[in-house]
Specification:
This protein is mainly α. The chain is about 50% helix and about 5% strand. The strands form 3 sheets. The chain has a two-stranded antiparallel sheet with strand order 1-2. Strand 1 and strand 2 form a beta hairpin.
């Protein structure tokens, strides 16, 4: 792919950080541009982070504004304007940017693999863990790309910096079934390898990881939980339908016996101010500028228990001027929303907060919070995965207990974000940002028990509350579950004014740049999969 050539400089990917200076980066991590040959430790760090700041793991303005905005609308986890003609539209340039971001990371990982493979045995003993951790991260994003587009280049992609063969740098597209099969198998193998290294790691390994691993700071028990929880996510996704149901169900059983993300102590997330990287920089502006209003389906899901609000609700949204929680929904027309709202922040007008018809995001938690973390896999998601697996008979256990623990962990997570920033940006919130006190596990469990009882279809309850947990922060995962299960059941009316995207799409179409730069392989994949927004992926309902 032509795009990869611009990323590689002498076989070394450039590493700088958006949101902080080069000096900040160099103070904490080796700069590969300052050495003749970057070591594995630096290449691992480079695999984790995009030098341009257009990163899809960590919170950033670019991700929120160009990407989460799309899927927040598709999953209806955020409120938005029902603009006729553009309800389901997305910008091809944004899809191209997401595509490029992954292949830049993959190219970095290929360089890491190449350096490692050319080391002597003694050096490989210390560096093997670096390759393992980077591969867990890459498999996470490789499957995310497959979830978006379907068949994608992977097994032979990202090799230009290694082979220096430009003519051979345009890889074939791989079947998304095979990408998933590989990821589920490799994550199981990587878990075993990381576990062995964790039990016998040298002082040098410990020192290197502590310095270079800014996701988990060298904590291999957290990496074990990351690898296995990611594997559980993928296995559950394919266990219901498609060519990998048997393999998915078998992997689920194994995952349930291994270390998983369980609570805040081993949650996989990156602190926004870690090492001075300022991941929060402009992140909150993404929500100030667009979709800073509530989703009515989200509110409905949190007001399901008669007379009792979900304890998460107050940390997520602020009541409107009349003291009610009100969000937008797909049954409203553009004109109705404008009349009700006059309008609201993110829809082009500057209606005062205290006059709003629609509820908006709680500033202490979101738009005023400079310390909001970047979640990769939360404990709540994993408990809901467990609950679904048990409820479907893929694993043994108590589905209700797992569901309730998911509510507890989700509630704790949102309260932690709400209380994280000491001075919640009065200039943004108009002085209405509020820090709330966590009500305690017992009270949340009581609510979760009542909530469970409201669902006659327990799978609907599990998937809907998992969707609430994803919220505005992980909308792509919410969209995946909607495509996979149909839960929660949401209204998606036809956009009769649209020229092309009249219905909710089932996949993203390949970027135009990939069509131009990798034409022969693009034509080959289109002959098999097609390139239509309404083609369903192999695991989709």
């Amino acid at each position: 792919m032509n795009k990869i050539k611009s990323i590689i400089l002498g076989g070394i990917a450039i590493l700088t950080l958006a949101g902080c200076s080069d000096d900040t980066f160099n103070e904490f991590y080796d700069d590969p541009n300052g050495v003749t040959k970057a070591p594995c430790s630096t290449l691992m760090t480079g695999t984790f982070y995009d030098k341009d700041g257009r990163d899809y793991t960590f919170n950033a303005y670019w991700r929120v504004y160009t990407w989460d905005n799309i899927f927040g609308k598709y999953a209806q986890t955020c409120g938005y304007k029902n603009n006729s003609g553009g309800v389901y539209f997305y910008n091809d340039g944004y899809a191209n940017d997401r595509w490029n971001a992954f292949y830049k990371r993959l190219a970095q990982f290929r360089n890491l693999q190449n350096v490692y493979e050319n080391e002597d045995e003694a050096q490989q003993k210390n560096d093997r863990i670096l390759v393992d951790l980077a591969e867990v991260f890459i498999l996470d994003h490789a499957t995310q790309i497959a979830d978006l587009f379907g068949d994608t280049p992977f097994f032979n992609a990202g090799m230009l910096g290694v082979t220096d063969n430009f003519d051979g740098s345009r890889p074939a597209f791989n079947d998304d079934v095979e990408i998933y099969r590989h990821a589920i198998k490799r994550l199981g193998e990587l878990y075993t390898d990381i576990e062995a290294i964790n039990n016998s790691k040298t002082e040098l390994v410990t020192k290197t990881l502590t310095a270079q691993d800014y996701i988990n700071k060298g904590d291999l028990t957290k990496w074990l939980a990351y690898a296995n929880s990611l594997r559980l996510r993928l296995a559950v996704r394919v266990a219901l339908k498609g060519d990998l149901t048997a393999e998915g169900q078998a992997a689920i059983k194994e995952c349930m016996t291994r270390k998983l993300v369980e609570d805040a102590n081993n949650q996989i997330e990156v602190a926004s101010d870690l090492d001075g990287f300022n991941f929060w920089e402009n992140f909150r502006d993404g929500y100030k500028d667009i979709n800073n209003v509530a989703s009515q389906p989200m509110i409905d899901a949190m007001q399901r228990v008669a007379g009792t609000d979900d304890p998460r609700l107050q940390t997520m949204y602020v009541k409107n001027a009349e003291g009610n929680y009100v969000g937008t929904n797909r049954t409203e027309t553009n004109g109705e929303q404008t009349e009700k709202g006059s309008s609201f922040n993110g829809f082009g007008n500057k209606q005062k907060y205290e006059e709003r018809y629609y509820s908006y995001l709680e500033p202490a938690t979101f738009t005023g919070n400079r310390l909001f973390v970047s979640p990769i896999i939360t404990a709540a998601e994993v408990w809901f995965l467990r609950a679904e697996a048990i409820q479907r008979g893929w694993a043994t256990g108590d589905a209700e207990a797992a569901f309730k623990q998911g509510i507890v962990e989700s509630t704790k997570w949102y309260y932690r974000q709400n209380n994280m920033f000491e001075a919640a940006a009065d200039e943004i919130a108009g002085g209405v940002a509020t820090h709330y006190t966590y009500p305690g596990d017992a009270e949340v469990e009581t609510y979760a028990t009542a909530l469970w009882a409201t669902y006659s279809d327990k799978l609907e309850g599990i998937l809907t509350q998992k969707w609430v947990n994803f919220g505005i922060i992980q909308p792509t995962q919410a969209w995946n579950d909607i495509r996979r299960t149909g839960y929660p059941a949401l209204s998606y009316p036809t956009d009769t004014q649209a020229q092309n995207m009249k219905e909710l799409p089932n996949r993203m179409m390949y970027p135009n740049t990939e069509k131009a730069n990798n034409r022969a392989n693009y034509d080959a994949v289109v002959s098999v999969q097609g390139d239509d927004a309404y083609t369903k992926l192999f695991w989709a309902k």
